[in-house]
Amino acid sequence: MRRALLSAVIAAAVLSLTGGIAAAHANYVKSNPAADARLTRPPTEVRVTFSEPPDARGSDLAVLDIDGKRVDVRDVALVSDEPNTLRVTLGAIADGGYLVSWTALSTVDGHVTKGAFGFALGDAPLPKIPDIGPSALPPTALEIAGRALSYAGMALLTGLAFFTMFIRVPASGAERRRERRLVIAGGAVLLLGSALLLLGQGANIPGRLLGLLGLRALAGAAAIALVAVPARFLPEDARREAIAFLGLAAGLTATLVSHAAAVGDLGDVAVDYLHVMAISVWLGGVVAFSYVAMPSARGDDPRELGRTIWRFSLTALVAVAVIVTTGTLASFDRLVLFEDLIETPYGIALLAKIVLLVGLLGLGGLNLLVWGPRMRRGLAAGAQFWRGVMGESALFAGVILAAAFLTAFVPPAQASAAAFDETKHVSGIRVQLLAASTLPGRNRFVVRVQQGLTSITGAEKVALRFTMVEHDMGELELVAAERAPGEYVAEGSPTAMFGTWKAEVIVRLAGRSDVRALFTVPISPAAGQDATTKIVAVPPYQLIVFADPFQPQAGAPITINAVVVDAKGDPVLGKKLRAAFDGPATVAPLDAVENVAELGPGRYRFTVPGLEAGSWKVTIGVDGAGSGVYELVVLR
Amino acid sequence: MTRLISFVAATLVVATSFIAFAGTAAAHERRTVGPYQLVVGWLNEPAHVGFMNSLDLRVTDTRVTPAKAVEGLEKTLTVELRTGGLAPLPLTVTARFGAPGAYNGYVMPTATGTYIFTIKGKIESLDVNETFESGPGRFGDVESTDALQYPNKVPMADDLGKRLSDLQGAVDQTRIFALAALVVGIVALGGAAMMVRRR
Fold it and tell me: How far is A268 from chain B (nearest CA, A)?
């Protein structure tokens, strides 16, 4: 037992050295220029950051003008100073709309994802984002077969080794022969599965994945080779420990390319590994019981068989507890909504796996509670038990297949750069709201609308209505425009004050009532976000001041927004605000405009035609009170 | 004495009307179309689900001072009302008695939410095709009566519909579970029967 544990630790240590923690699908996180950015100067390069390391060889960033002509110099490369980021150099580009079409090959399991975003230079309109199909390509039959065979091989090697070491040591020559045959089968299946996965990846396979799949194949080949070693050089118990080590190592290669690793948390990786091992011990053990032990045990005293069943059932019980616990923990991370179980490919595969495991649990329960006790009492129940074990073996194949699909599909919970990201399910429609920032001031809101697995394009209207919980700041509406299939974007500064905001997303679709999803968005100053929004104290009031655009540029119009609140935080109406500018040039003082109907209560707006580049001190005075200073940096 | 009571009562009615009218006007959308100003909203605001209400349309000609009410539009304008993406309901436009330039189109909204009036036709010689949607800064959405009900909450039409729909969903789900349980039960019984026979 101690040696087996030591083997597992060594396997984990060795394989951990082959690469850091990574993920299974490279998704867009952020870019420079940002999606839908309006630039006044042409960028020299485009950078896109993904949720996990992309492989530069199999990935691409294509920057296209409105005629579809590439304007980059095709030198896509990884960036050394920014993790998970690809860059491409741009040639000289004129004012206009540009589309960045990206393809990312995950270095972890070789999955390909793709997408597009646009930006505009000058006053040109933003380009239309084309419908390029699903972000992650569906898995191929070769991949599913490779995964299923790999998992079956891992389970056979691990489960068999565990069974023959701790449940029933093969006593007869015939039993040992069957054990060896099963090791060969497990090793061959593992080898074949790994080979299919390598074949499916082709020449573009990332180095890390090549290494891990190679090690997995090596584990299968080593298991076969161990069988050929004569017993005088390698005793049976040592061989079993070595096979257990190979099974554990192969399982670790699966975990290191799994969705769990995508989270980047060692705890998630450990949970996934425990899950894989528990399933392997249980399922591989069932096959070992039926193929290795049963033919010999059928002639034994039923009491002896009953005791074996009892030991295995206890092991299975522990395995089930581990599977349920780790599976539930993993689901919390990877599912967004309960409905994901029936609405997403990942969820459907997970549900199928759960149903099959419940079936297995039922059959295992019969063994533990009915047939085992009968046999321990000396009653004949071997035939029923045999049929049950055969049924379990059949379900085992189903579980392995479901796991193959599960690990190949994209989990519904995906990384994003949004400061707020929440999904609601309303009247059969999934509504996801993403906010770029949770600071008061100008913000970008993205609404993704899906029905089942399909993105909803061409919604008649998608609007967001904002109301504040703590204070009456009025109700403000932003209407979102469709920027990509099923993705609607709105920009504005409705959430101009610290506190809790209710954002109601209204989706209007032909032939049905409006879908209304209510989100609670906390707006607060937070570390790590670019805080250009400032609180300016003008006793007895406080002014929440922010500029629009977020990073003003020289010569371009700037709007300075001020929300005036009293000591209780309630908006203050009917004040006269005046701004005086002190900076690189002379600018005449400006009076603020208050328009409650359009801007909302307590909101004032200074419209500045343009400022020179540099640091400005804007002194804002409130009639009947004092004044305060807002510092503004205008970019060149 | 009776005269005094009548006078006070009449004064109260007028004052109340002013107050009510002032509130209503504030929650209307004003829009200039050509030389005309259109003011659109609900006749009774806030509009509540399950209660009779009406389009409140007022049209004035701004070319003269003070603006002149435009009459006779019940013959030249058509109004449709819709909520969400549902098929629109044509409203019967009628001139409001005693209020020149004001028009009604009665309806009882049976769902909460955003409503859209589409006004088409002619105002004198001008072709119009305008859409007025309830919402912030315009006129109010149709609201639930939940907050106003006391002491018992009575579900209104749309709530009832939603509840019936939810109930139907639950019944469907239960039916699926029952069928699954039946299948499992039959399989289990069959298995048990086979085992008993073999013993």
Answer: 33
